[in-house]
Amino acid sequence: MPPAPELHTFADTQELVQAAADFLVQLGQRAIAERNRFLVALSGGSTPKTLYATLTSPTLARRLDWTKVHFFFGDERCVPPEHPESNFGLAQAMLFAPLHIPPSSIHRIQGEDLPEAAAISYETLLRRLTAKPEEPWPVFDLVLLGMGDDGHTASLFPGTPAVSESTRWVVPSSAPQGARSRITITLGVINHASVILFLVTGHKKATVVQRILEKSADDPSPYPAALVRPERGRLLWYLDCAAASKLTTTPPHSTSHEDP
Ligand code: 6PG
């Protein structure tokens, strides 16, 4: 039985990303102390912007040896890296460049390639860099996830084949709007992470948050985010008050930071 999700609510986005940044740094310190590296899969969308701005602030940036951090992506839009919709492009501008992350520590999905080719090459890279010989799945120290108001996460959208993929690690997918052609890691990769952290803000997501977090685990659910259930790791949901506003049992309100 997977461990129950750990829910935390925050007054607003800034408080949430401050706690998330501190949690990431603490996880990184522990991973680097234990294994001399910290493997993080970044999410896309817009929420990461505020997280990146917080992580690059002097007080936080100096707390982690960024030379030991390897950055991956949970998904990417099928666009070139300089495209405004590129998840890598956002991270490059707002996180990697300010922290002077060396290119050898940045492992992007090549959105400019044909989707199937990009998925295959990313899976090959993941197998080379993140899997332990005895493990059939990669083990990320941290997978950061957002959630859309339709319950998608990464680029796993309701009713699409990518959601039910059970052997491949990386597959092409399609979004119903915006940058439609995507590449995404699959639920098997997500669910084998040591720590999975959802960052969800805004009233628009409150209904889906409630349906996911307050339905019993065996209820059929069309929401891909509801299928994120770690095999052995931890699952945390960081919610601002707006996103948590429809929960009948209010999670503990956090004002600071999670001890990993
Ligand atoms: C993407 C993301 C996607 C995102 C959610 C939430 O590439 O779009 O991976 O899953 O996390 O859509 O996006 P916001 O943070 O912008 O609400």
What does this structure look like?
This protein is an alpha/beta fold and 260 residues long. The chain has eight helices and nine strands. It has helices at 13-35, 47-55, 58-61, 87-96, 115-129, 161-164, 187-191, 206-213, and strands at 6-10, 38-42, 69-73, 75-77, 142-145, 170-174, 181-185, 195-200, 234-240. The protein is globular and about 45 Å long. The mean pLDDT is 93.
List keywords for this structure.
single chain, 260 residues, alpha/beta, globular
- Give the end-to-end Cα distance, rounded to a whole number of Å: 21 Å
Structural class: alpha/beta
The shape is globular
Radius of gyration, whole Å:
17 Å
Question: Could you name the ranges where pLDDT drops below 50 across 5 or more consecutive residues?
Answer: none
Number of helices, counting only DSSP H or I runs of 4 residues or more = 8
Q: Proportion of β residues?
A: 15-25%
Tell me how many strands there are: 9
Mean pLDDT: 93
Largest sheet: 6 strands, parallel
Proportion in helices? 25-40%
SSE run: EHEHHEEHHEHEEHEHE
What's the arrangement of strands in the largest beta sheet? 1-9-8-5-2-3
What hetero molecules are bound to the protein chains?
6-phosphogluconic acid
Quaternary:
single chain
